[in-house]
Amino acid sequence: MSQSFRTPAKRINPHGAAHAGTGHFIAQRVSAIALAIVLPVFVVTLALSGAPDSFAARSYFASPFGAIVSLLTLTAALYHMRLGLQVVVEDYIHTVATRTALLVLNSLLAAGLWLAAAYALLTLAL
Question: Which one is predicted more confidently, 104 or 24?
């Protein structure tokens, strides 16, 4: 006879309370690794482009390589920011209405900043 050390609640609901803790943890780590790779590339290539000069900076962001690296960096940074702020809000805001409003605002802010950055890059590239 096999004896289980699981509680009855754990046998019924084996995923725990949130059902997504591991996925969120992995997503945050993947976005951090992406930032660790793409951010130095962005900084070095922007610095080598002669960025204090406005014409050089504009030509960097208008180039396909500069636009892609910039968009990848912004995407990883904003996604990582959204995930990190989500954890803070879920851990420290206990009122359901306030928590929900802040989580929606967090997602809208990240999406809005990404859209503004993508629009600016497209404006420079075209």
Answer: 104
Number of residues that this document lists for the chain: 126
Which residue in 69, 77, 64 sits closest to 47, CA to CA? 69
Of the candidate CATH numbers 3.30.460, 1.10.8, 1.20.1300, 1.10.10, the domain formed by 32-125 belongs to: 1.20.1300
pLDDT at residue 15 greater than cutoff 70: no
**Nearest Cα to Cα of residue 17 among 5, 29, 9:** 9
Long-range contacts of 56-62 (CB under 8 A, 24+ apart): 58/124, 61/121, 61/124, 61/125, 62/124, 62/125
Q: Which pLDDT band, with edges at 50, 70 and 90, does 12 fall under? A: low
Query: Where do the structural domains in the chain lie, given as residue ranges?
Result: 32-125
Compute CA distances 46 → 30, 56, 69, 75, whole Å: 24, 9, 10, 17
